[in-house]
Structures are given as structure tokens and as C-alpha cells.
Amino acid sequence: MKHINVALFVVHKGCPHMCSFCNQRSISGSQTEITPDEVRSAAKTAIASLSEREAAGGEIAFFGGSFTMIERGYMISLLEAAYEYVERGIFKGIRISTRPDGISEEICEILRKYGVTAVELGAQSLDDRVLALNERGHTAEDVEKAVSMLKGFGFETGLQMMTGLYGSGDSDSLETAEKIVSMKPDTVRIYPTVVIKGTRLHELMLSGDFAPKGIEETVELCARLIPMFENAGIKVIRVGLHSGGGVEESYAGGTYHPALRELCEGRIYYNAALKKLRENGKGKYSLAVDKREISKMTGQKKQNLEKLCSLGYECSVEGREGMAKYEIDVRPVSLFK
């Protein structure tokens, strides 16, 4: 069954802080405040594209800004508009994103009353030093308390982390991932830092005090992070910022690529294949992966196969039914048939 989701941006509303990386007006591509009528209009537009049976199961999502910290009456008016469609069974629920310090028992009661089923927290890091350097205004302990409360109320809980922040390195990103795994959220989003014009990070970059991470080192790091979450049963629902929405126009540095997740998963396959090939020695090989994963093993523009060939491993890729994700079967190819 095909589902639809409606994503709405609450632009830079309610947040008491201006984090080093944040310029929500650029990220959302909008400076206008959404209204309850616009929520209804967006839902109706989505519904019109499919039958109500096909639409059932999707979500109405409020992103951008800190949803639970906006003016209370305004927040409830948006929830009421969205809940009309949840009550009718057209959408399965409402998803919101907010700050860890925007969660309380009172807020959880309101969210549950109006059909919110999933809450994502912008944790970004679980290293207090990195959080302070990037002016987050909350601590790692705030994240842990918020996750515990949300899970206690029965919400699907998601955490968002960032890599490559000011003062951050691979080691603290890996430690953050380990702490996230220990909290057992349902979902994770990984957002490598993108420097947006008009932010504190942009100023630090221009002054030479901050050097944003490039694609290559970010891909290598995320190729380590993704399996950490997936092996723990935590669904990785996003890697990198969405394309569009004004990001391209406001981009000043850092890791932005419209197919970043594909690059990262391709690197996972490359690293796994190289490890196995080195155990066998240089030569000609056939690499078998799940049929749906052939393009990732091959790599964008066949770069994985080209890199392996440059190291002395001439490889072809074949698809096979029933193989697990990231599983690779390496078989030597005889020179004589």
C-alpha cells in the first residue's frame, strides 16, 4: 500500500537559542508563519493525489524550529488542524521535532491528546563540550531525560545527530552514536554539518577558526555510524540534508550532497569487500550481493569497482536473492574455463 506524508516547516519559531549552525529561514526556504488553514490545505492536496485507502498510514510532520517551544495556543491550533485527518484515519499520526529541553510531562500530555505519535529530538551531540561550543543551550543529560520521558508516554522516539560540528571530531561522533544506541530510540537521522551563510559557523569558517569536514572524510565516518545503528535495530531514516528548500543557495561549506546516503552505503560495501579481498590476495573476483544492493556495491559511476581494480582486485558484481544488507560473497574467477 502506498502512503503519503505531509511535511510542514515551522520556521525559526519558539527556539530560545541561535545555535552555531542554524539559519532556519535558509534551510526551509521560507520566512512565513504557517497557519492552521495551510495545514489543512497541505493535507487536502496530498490526499487528492491518492485514494484515502492509499493515504492511510502516512504522517503529518512539523519540522524546522522547536515545535513544543512555540506559543502554546499557536502550537495547539496547528495540532488541531492536523488531528482532523488523524481522527478520520487518513493519516496514522503526527510527527514533530523539537529540542530536548522542550519536553515536559505537560507537553507530552498535550502531544498525546492531539494525535502525535512520533517525536524527534535534535540532540546533535552527546558531548557537553561540543554542545557548549555550538551554543546549543542544553546538555547531554537533558537528551537522556527527554528520551526517557517520551518513551514512557509511548511515543515513537527519534534522535538527530550532527557530525563535523565546531570542536567535534570522529571520536566524539562515535561516542555520541554509542550513547544513542544505549538509549534505544526507534529512529535516527544523521546530519553532517553544512555551513549556511549568515550563521556563526560561517563567521568561524571565514575567520579560519573552523574548517568544515569534506565529503570524503564524512562519508568514511558515516559508513561507520550507519551500521552501528542498524545493527542495534535503530532505523536510520535520513543521512544528510534534503535537497532543495534553499540549501543550495545558502550553502557556504561543509558536507552537502543530494545522494549522500548512497555514497555512505556504497562506502560500507567497499570497505567490506576490500577486507575480504585482502584475505584472498590480488586477482579477479565475482562479488555477490542482494539484488537490490548492486548499485551500492558498484558505487556511483562505478567508483568502487575502479578503486578496487587500482588496488589489484578486478571485480564484477552479481545480484543474488536472499542475501542480507551489506553481506558480500567473494568468489575467485578462474582464468581458465
Summarize the structure.
The chain has 337 residues and is an alpha/beta fold.
Average pLDDT over all residues? 91
Q: Write down the CATH class of the largest domain.
A: Alpha Beta
The string of secondary-structure elements, in order, is EHHHEHEHEHHEHEEHHEHEHEHHEE
What class do helices, strands and sheet pairing give?
A: alpha/beta
Across the major sheet, the strand order is: 1-2-3-4-5-6-8
The helix count comes to 14
* Uncertain stretches: 26-30
Which shape, going by the Cα principal axes? globular
**CATH architecture type of the largest domain:** Alpha-Beta Barrel
What does this structure look like?
This protein is α/β, with parallel strands linked by helices and about 325 residues long. The protein has 2 domains: about 250 residues, Aldolase class I (TIM Barrel), CATH 3.20.20.70; about 70 residues. Helix content is about 40%, strand content about 20%. It is built from 14 helices and 12 strands. It has a 7-stranded parallel beta sheet with strand order 1-2-3-4-5-6-8. A 3-stranded mixed beta sheet has the order 11-10-12. Strands 7-9 form a two-stranded antiparallel ribbon. Helix 4 links the parallel strand 2 and strand 3. About 0% of the residues have low confidence.
Task: List the SSEs and their pairings.
Layout: E1 6-9, H1 24-28, H2 36-48, H3 52-55, E2 58-63, H4 72-87, E3 91-98, H5 105-113, E4 116-124, H6 128-133, H7 140-152, E5 156-163, H8 170-183, E6 187-192, E7 194-196, H9 200-207, H10 215-231, E8 235-239, H11 247-250, E9 251-254, H12 260-280, E10 283-290, H13 294-298, H14 303-310, E11 313-320, E12 329-332
Parallel strand pairs: 1-2, 2-3, 3-4, 4-5, 5-6, 6-8, 10-11
Antiparallel strand pairs: 7-9, 10-12
Helix pairs in contact: 2-4, 8-10, 10-12
